[in-house]
Amino acid sequence: DQQVKQNSPSLSVQEGRISILNCDYTNSMFDYFLWYKKYPAEGPTFLISISSIKDKNEDGRFTVFLNKSAKHLSLHIVPSQPGDSAVYFCAAIVNDYKLSFGAGTTVTVRA
Amino acid sequence: DAGVTQSPTHLIKTRGQQVTLRCSPKSGHDTVSWYQQALGQGPQFIFQYYEEEERQRGNFPDRFSGHQFPNYSSELNVNALLLGDSALYLCASSFRTGRTLDTQYFGPGTRLTVL
Question: What does the alpha-carbon distance between residue A91 and residue A7 come to, in Å, rounded to a whole number?
Answer without folding.
Answer: 14
